[in-house]
Amino acid sequence: MTRRPNPEPDDHRVGDAMPLARRRRRAHLVVASKVVLVVALLGAAAALALPSPAATVVGVATVVLVVGTPMARVAWLVVRWLRLGDRRFALVGLAVLALGVVAAVTPL
To answer: Could you tell me which residues are beta bridge partners of residue 13?
Structure first.
């Protein structure tokens, strides 16, 4: 049985969560997700309170925000995976983006 090497000092686990170094690198994603959530909730509330033409515009903008945010994250990951040379993950990410585009342009 081989022993695994000790992790780097900056990569110690914090409780049951991800390593501290990775948590610091992803902190901006948590903040951005919270901002998108608040804006989406405000947009949904505004779409309910506004008169019909304005409510439609705000409602569409809210849906675009809620759907576009994860798609932008996938696009960012595809670029990152391509830079790292991981073509398989990048291909899967491109397939997910293609599904989103097909769903957006297909009429109901």
So the answer is: 19
Q: Other CB atoms closer than 10 Å to residue 63's CB: what's the count?
A: 14
Token pair 């914090």 in the structure block, residue:
14
Structure pTM? Answer: 0.69
Query: Which of 43, 39, 41, 20 shows the shortest CA–CA distance to 31?
Result: 39
Structure tokens at 93: 């990410």
Look at residue 23 and give its three-state secondary structure: helix
Q: What is the pLDDT along the chain (108 residues), one digit of tens a residue?
A: 566 666 555 555 555 566 777 777 778 888 888 999 999 999 999 999 999 899 999 999 999 999 999 999 999 999 999 999 999 999 999 999 999 999 989 987
Three-state SS at 13: strand
CA 91 distance to own-chain centroid: 17
Contact (CB, 8 A) for 14 and 20: yes
